[in-house]
Amino acid sequence: MHTRFLLERFQAYGSKEAMIWKGEPYSYAQLLESIEASRSFLDRYRVQAGSVVVLEGDFTPGTLALMFALIDRECLIVPLTSGMDSRKEEIYEIAQAQLVLTMDAEDQVSVASFPTLTSHELLVSLQQCEHPGLILFSSGSTGKSKATVHDFTVMLKKFSTDRVRAGKRIMGFLFFDHIGGINTVLNTLSSGGCIVALEDRSPDRVCAAIARHKVQVLPASPTFLNLLLLSEAYNRHDLSSLELINYGTEAMNEHTLTRIREILPQAGLLQSYGMSEIGIIRSSSRSPDSLWIKFKGEDYETRVVDGLLEVKSEFTMLGYLNAESRFTEDGWYRTGDAVECDGEYFRIRGRQSEMINIGGEKIYPIEIENVLLQMDEVIEASVVGEKNLITGTMITATFQLRVQLPAAEFRARMRAFCRDKLPAWGIPQKCVIVEELAPGNRLKKKRS
User: Fold this and answer.
1) Is residue 12 part of a domain?
2) Where does the chain cross the membrane (predicted)?
3) Is residue 331 a part of any domain in this protein?
4) CA 141, CA 83: separation in Å to the nearest integer?
């Protein structure tokens, strides 16, 4: 049984709270009962080992119980949340889905089946070695969703030792179909902690849940933390229980980090690094207000080649279902993240795919945004490179402002402000002013 060590811990934790869902506590003993009921459910529907099963839901008792039952059934699990509704059919096809289990608002499950044969070599290899699998899809914001395949047996090994933050109340903020969400589930429950589930990830609802349930750890994206600052929800709720904010999923800008440190001085700040392809790497920040991190433990090896980070670990994915391999011949995964190095510390500059090249001069969007966000007039800014007939590329910045200003006036102010802070070629040539810069469906900054 692949989850034996987890089930033994759940039994030992007994009446301790495993989850808060819709404001109500749900114990480890109740979770074990739900896992047993889920096994019976799978028996009733004759779900076979090796089946590709889409599990549509979020952080609910029923969804998590089904996930553990499916792992022990050696199924290949595709977690899916409502944010991916527009891509469901594409996902079913790529994953070669055979069964879809959908959890409704009351945590009741419905079933749909497809007469699909599993043919992809990665899925077949998991079936042949009788291992459960995990298939994660990217948001597809810049094109087709990429499907990463993991061996769930290998992934579980990371959580078989006692966790550092044992017994903590952790916010279920990162999505269930995101590597960070899966990491939250396994990290929290393997250590006897409690997941506080959210029905709404708006700043006020998140802060209300922190205050009501005394949440100690908040995993979050930098984009959400900026939304928190803009909303000032931290002034309307008691966040004194927060001990740690673990931020990741995208590059953090210096302005947001400094402001979060100011308004929540009691909370530690820890930058995590991870991707669907490699999992979450344990790390530590040089200091709470630093964007420099170092990786901890012997689970991962890292190296930098031509300024880009590469990672090697048994916890990296087996491969993609629908994209070319990013592994080198000697087994290193090419992350595509540009980094600076200072001894054992790294600073993430940004994705290589987002790099802006102006006549041979190169800069990353976050480096420009760090300057733009220092302007008093600016609430939020997003920078991209756009095609230009003369230079090949020009820098376009989209702004959300505190007060409305004529575009020409603001552009003049912006260029004057940046003159001694950015090279002339790195100052945005095109300015777009919008009422609101809305985040993407996974609460990350949209750059497309």
Assistant:
1) yes
2) none
3) no
4) 12
Instruction: List, for residues 80-107, the tens digit of each pLDDT value.
Output: 998 787 788 999 999 999 999 999 999 9
Cα atoms found within 13 Å of the Cα of residue 364, Cβ hemisphere only:
20
- The helix or strand, by DSSP H or E, that contains position 262, with its residue range, turns out to be helix 254-263
Predicted confidence (pLDDT) at residue 445 exceeds the cutoff of 80: no
Flag whether 98 is in a domain: yes
User: How many residues are present in the chain?
Assistant: 448
Domain range for 376? 355-434
Mean pLDDT of 37-54: 96
Q: Which of 157, 186, 220 is the last residue of a domain?
A: 157
- Do residues 152 and 70 lie in contact, with contact meaning Cβ atoms separated by under 8 Å? no
Contacts 24+ apart (CB under 8 A), 375-378: 375/413, 375/414, 375/417, 376/402, 377/401, 377/402, 377/403, 377/405, 377/410, 377/413, 378/402
Cβ atoms of residues 64 and 186 within 8 Å: no
7-39 pLDDT, tens digit per residue, is 999 999 999 999 999 999 999 999 999 999 999
Looking at residue 164, its pLDDT comes to 47
SS3 157: helix
* Among 157, 174, 198, residue at a domain's last position: 157
The total of structural domains in the chain comes to 2
- Confirm whether 295 is domain-assigned: no
Give the pLDDT confidence of 176-208 residue by residue, as tens digits: 999 999 999 999 999 999 999 998 999 999 999
DSSP secondary structure letters along 350-396? EEGGG-EEETTEEE-HHHHHHHHTTSTTEEEEEEEEEEETTTEEEEE
Query: What DSSP character marks residue 327?
Result: B
Q: Which sign, positive or negative, has the C-alpha torsion 4, 276, 172, 286?
A: positive
Say how far apart CA 405 and CA 289 lie, in whole Å. 32
User: CATH number, domain at 417?
Assistant: 3.30.300.30
Parallel, antiparallel, or unpaired for β 268-271 and 244-247? Answer: parallel
Bridge partners of 134? 77, 150
C-alpha to C-alpha distance for 2 and 77, rounded to whole angstroms: 14
Which CATH number characterizes residue 22's domain?
Answer: 3.40.50.12780
Query: pTM here?
Result: 0.89
Distance CA 180, CA 174 (A): 6
Structure tokens at 57: 């839901």
**DSSP E strands, 14-158:** 17-21, 24-27, 52-56, 76-80, 99-103, 109-113, 133-137, 147-151
Q: Please return the burial class of 80, using the count of CB atoms within 10 Å of its CB with bins 0-12, 13-18 and 19+.
A: buried
